[in-house]
Sequence to fold (255 residues):
Amino acid sequence: MTVFGSYARYYDLLYRDKDYTAETEWIAALIRRHAPNAKTILEIGSGTGLHASLLADRGFSVTGIDMSDGMLEAAEVRRRSLDPVVAERLSFVKGDARTFRLDGKFDAVISLFHVMSYQTSNDDLAAAFASAREHVADGGVFVFDCWYGPAVLRQWPSVTTKELSDEATLVRRVAEPVIHATTNTVDVNYTVTVTDKSTGSSEVLKETHNMRYLFSPEVELTLRAAGMQLVESRGWLTESEPDFDTWGACFTGRP
Fold:
């Protein structure tokens, strides 16, 4: 089972407060800044397909890659609910960020919501970057976000609780982090309680997500090893360089 295996069913509810529209506009603008003629996008770690769907609605042809069957099933349900013209520009394929290979190149390869922070070893990160390089066309861009090391170490991971609900379900998630100094990783231990409002019955799910925080020099070095150069770094949803207050950073590379 993948790391998102159990609560993929509740993923969209947990992140209902996330402003996917603003994020999509920001990513689209970033892509157009560096690859103004971009028409095709490959998304590594596409999840339930919301970013991909919004990008397709803006005229891009988008292929999403994910290793979770649950996420792919949710993405396909979403795709089938779209206007047929938009749905035609959207497809989802099962694959591992480190090893997948598709035919053809894309004008932009993107990887959002910290997928690269799940590449916790140097070999994993190098392999994921190599996958991106294999699929980005000359003149295209590779855009990804991650946990940013200086902010993680300054702010320090702490226990957080998140609670969201809809008309049928209440989801409460407690995240308890454990940081590891020698690997630049954090084990995020999730306890997710899902309550059926009509019956009051609850289900408790437990998962651990091992996350890596990255620093700009290692990003630049790993991009270079994959045959790309770093052209821009930004705080997530900002136009400023990442700093000690920027937990999420976004990097842009190109061949």
